[in-house]
Design brief:
Layout (H helix, E strand, L loop, with lengths): L4 H17 L2 H16 L1 H8 L5 H11 L5 H13 L5 H15 L2 E8 L5 H15 L2 E8 L6 E6 L2 E6 H16 L1
Parallel strand pairs: 1-2
Antiparallel strand pairs: 1-3, 3-4
């Protein structure tokens, strides 16, 4: 997923604070709630509305996030104040990726030409776990253009086992052979 640099930085800062305080779980829950609230279409529209004062937006956020870790609430206030509440989901994702990385869990985006069954998804996760020496959580997406096989992205690693890439490589080799 393409993520804004600001969201990544907020997520990293939140992770450092949570790790230093040993409150990763509370932060994770609070950030998830914050992301859900700020992603709600009605609340997102209110937060972008220029006619609503920042104080009113702040009050709404504080009421909705009552009970979360006070530092998570401070982050929400900062996002409201800076007009960056749309970043909440990306911040929560960046934070969770860092928590998971510390626990030895990797996330993979797997693209296939056809939807995978649950058993196939589990099998792909197991194979990627063997390859990466980490527990891998798989998110799938479908793209018919790859024709067959799969493309997996784990962090900055790309594993391209698609039929399309194999056909393109064969085409390239045939052109080189003719030259």
């Amino acid at each position: 997923m393409i993520r804004e640099i600001a969201a990544r930085r907020y997520g990293e800062a939140a992770f450092q604070i949570a790790r230093d305080g040993g409150t990763e779980e509370r932060w994770s829950e609070g950030l998830s709630l914050m992301a859900a609230i700020f992603s709600d279409s009605e609340i997102a529209a209110l937060m972008q509305e220029a006619r609503i004062s920042t104080a009113d937006k702040m009050g709404l956020a504080e009421k909705a996030l009552a009970g979360v870790d006070p530092l998570v609430l401070n982050l929400a206030r900062l996002l409201v104040h800076r007009g960056r509440t749309a970043l909440a989901s990306q911040i929560a994702e960046a934070f969770q990726e860092l928590v998971d990385a510390e626990r030895g869990i990797a996330h993979a985006l797997v693209t296939t030409a056809v939807p995978l069954s649950d058993d196939e998804t589990r099998a792909v996760a197991e194979k990627l776990s063997e390859i990466s020496d980490q527990q891998v959580v798989v998110e799938t997406q479908v793209d018919e253009r790859i024709i067959g096989g799969l493309v997996a992205r784990i962090g900055d690693k790309l594993i391209d086992g698609s039929t399309r890439s194999r056909l393109l490589a064969l085409k390239r080799r045939l052109r080189e052979a003719r030259a």
